[in-house]
């Protein structure tokens, strides 16, 4: 599979994931949920969508879909690491600059993590 094709699909799916993650985060925190659980809720929503779509389309080879418990376990480990980093950064911004700035910072944080995540997904999770 070409890196360009995978990268393009990962980007498109990532934008969907980021949109869902961000909307859930903003809605949850606007409704009164603190930043840390709000970020976790958003990331879970985006992760479930992303695991399914990336396994089905981005990293699939031919008719083989890249799902299964082994891949999900590797995905979960990577997701936990990225979620810890994301949550720490978003909570740091919320604490230092306020909730509205955390809303603006979240897409930047997630976008920066997505670049590293692509290569880790490609070589560790969906190999």
From TrEMBL:
It is found in: Membrane. This is Membrane protein. The keyword Transmembrane applies. It comes from the Bacteria. Pfam families: GtrA_DPMS_TM. The lineage of its organism: Bacteria, Pseudomonadati, Pseudomonadota, Gammaproteobacteria, Lysobacterales. Residues 9-125 form the GtrA/DPMS transmembrane domain. GO terms for cellular component: plasma membrane. It comes from Stenotrophomonas daejeonensis. InterPro entries: GtrA_CellWall_Glycosyl, GtrA_DPMS_TM. One of its GO terms (biological process) is polysaccharide biosynthetic process. The chain crosses the membrane at residues 12-34, 72-97, 103-121. Belongs to the GtrA family. Signal peptide: none annotated. Keywords: Membrane, Transmembrane, Transmembrane helix. It is a multi-pass membrane protein.
């Amino acid at each position: 599979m070409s890196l360009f094709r995978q990268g393009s699909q990962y980007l498109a799916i990532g934008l969907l994931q980021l949109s869902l993650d961000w909307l859930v985060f903003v809605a949850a925190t606007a409704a009164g949920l603190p930043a840390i659980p709000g970020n976790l809720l958003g990331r879970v929503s985006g992760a479930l969508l992303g695991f399914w779509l990336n396994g089905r389309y981005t990293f699939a080879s031919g008719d083989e879909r890249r799902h299964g418990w082994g891949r999900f376990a590797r995905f979960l480990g990577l997701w936990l690491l990225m979620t810890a980093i994301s949550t720490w950064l978003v909570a740091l911004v919320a604490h230092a600059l306020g909730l509205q700035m955390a809303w603006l910072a979240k897409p930047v944080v997630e976008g920066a993590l997505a670049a590293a995540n692509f290569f880790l997904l490609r070589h560790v999770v969906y190999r």
